[in-house]
Automatic annotation (TrEMBL):
Keyword set, alphabetical order: Hydrolase, Protease, Serine protease
Protein name, UniProt field: T9SS C-terminal target domain-containing protein
Species, as recorded: Chryseolinea soli
Domain Secretion system C-terminal sorting: 597-669
Family: Belongs to the peptidase S51 family.
Pfam family, one: Por_Secre_tail
GO biological processes: proteolysis
Gene Ontology molecular functions: serine-type peptidase activity
Amino acid sequence: MRGFYRITVIVLLCLPISLAAQGKLVLIGGGSESEGGWSDAPYRWVVDHAANKKVAVISYADEDNFIPDYFVSLGAAEATNIKIDSRTVADLQSTYDLLMTYDAFFFKGGDQSIYYTQFKNTKTMQAAIDKFHAGGVMSGTSAGMAILSGVMYTAENGSAYPDETLANLYNKNVTLANDFLAFLPGFLFDSHFTERGRIGRLLPFLAQWYLNKHELITGLGVDDRTALCIDPDRKAEVFGTGTVSIYNGSAYTAFKDEMPVADSIHAIQLLHGHRIDLTTFEILEGPTDVVSPQPSDETGNYAVALSGGGEVSENNDLLNFLVKENGQLHDTVVVVTAPGKGKTFIQKIKDLGGGATLVETAAASNDISQMALRNIIRRSKKILFVENDNGLLFNFLSAGPTGTLLNRHLRRNGMVVAFAGEDSRYAGHSFTTNHRTDGYAAYYGRLSYQKGLRLLPTSVIMANTFDPATTDYYENTTAAVSYAVVADSARYGIYLNKKNYVKFYQQNGRNHFKAMGDRSVLILMNRSTGAALASQPVNAGGPARDYAGFASMQYVLLNGNAVLDAGVPVPSTDAPYAFEYPVVGVDNEFGLSALQVFPNPSSSGIFNLSRDISASRNLELSIVDIVGRTLLEQHGGSLEQAVDLSGFPDGVYLLRIDNGKEISSMKVIKQR
């Protein structure tokens, strides 16, 4: 029996070491608490899992009593603000003794570098570790959450921003350490995740740690007004209005020794009520609707170039690809733009040695008389969309002979179609229209989407995702991509930035995506996954946030020589063009110059011809609608003295007469 007791004692003494994660964690991504709202459940979880129901609310600054009172309202026996404003106070034995009387710690938001520098290697740090290993609850919001992770972003040199870290994963502000609280080893936490576009920095953080330490760690991002409650056995549940995102990469490299590259980062994005095992990453309760991409891959047999920035100086690589790397240098580039726009891009194309023809999305360009312009489009192999207005562009492309021709032409085999800046959104399945005019669109569930050109029909594209000049829109630009991938059953979500571009092209019988530029491009891939849209509103009775959850997708960090396979090109059936010709002379045999059509306009649709053409067997007469379709033809002896359009809708038509040498055209109008 003595031997049994000795063994038992040894085992019990070893338990705190072998079960280092005995405590509980509550990770809160920031945002204001809401009595009776989203925060009640996770904050009550803190109280319910504290053995003595006492909560220490820890900060380095003076705080009001809202949080302590809130915990008490949720069942806490006691909740107290504890100010620890220096290393001296942090290292007092009395501070340690005070903290150890509470079974739950709650670290407030603020500056995580202050927590790190003032609390590291002090009695306060030891109290947190000891209490956690004794089964206590460690919780925190915003910066107070960030300090709880195994690998911590310390922010000692200032905040790191996504545009900076995608350009240089060794940016001076990327300061990582694993020598603080480390309650969840092998994890790196980030808060305010979607709101501040922090996927653009968390993935480079993971890459830097791997390249420096040769250790793969898990990234975990929590949105504002969202919490993740973690049991001692690492079973975790999500509460709140946003998402919890979890990332595991298999390897990382650096292009030009600084830009992060990764070919597959597994991603999980969970919503309110979802549960996961953070040891195995098995989803215990998650989204059940299966979202499979439709179509399953990109099949276009043409090249598409997409840039993130809208200034000509940010598009040198894209314009070189368009002008110099495809076709002939002297090929005409058709520049499609809003009235009065695009001039700097046209000049740059000319400076590179190319030619350019302007197509303004105005009624004048869509007039039936613009035959020469349409013939230029028919001959073109290169098109650039730049500085367009959503409404003007899509109205132009759907109404009128020039716009409808252009919309068909850009899909022909071998075309090279480029989109600069915000225009890049148009190339995909759908695009947001209010992401840069309504800073709270995603937050309040009012992002609006419009059908895109669908040159890349299973892709969703965001331009200039992480623009440091427009950080107020990060939530929109970040959330909109994954939301649309799920809502539209798309395959790819492409996050572009300034000074980079993605090209879609064919090589060796396959389609590919490749990224170029000064920042890596982030691409989300959906191969088929359980997915759902957020259900929890910010305000009671209002719409849910425009956020999506999914069980399994992949992210790629693309740059340099890395290539993403995107499917098999399927050639289209391109009919030869019939070019339009204006009146260039007179058919002397027939006296075409004297021909008149009356009445014009005609309410009945019957148009009489002033000359007898029935005997002119070498003539052909045709009626063409505004989109170039031939509706009626008469040849030689079948020519009649009147043209009957009574069976066609009101509108403008083109009457064409061909004598074999030239074509004469006349506009006729049917109007009741």
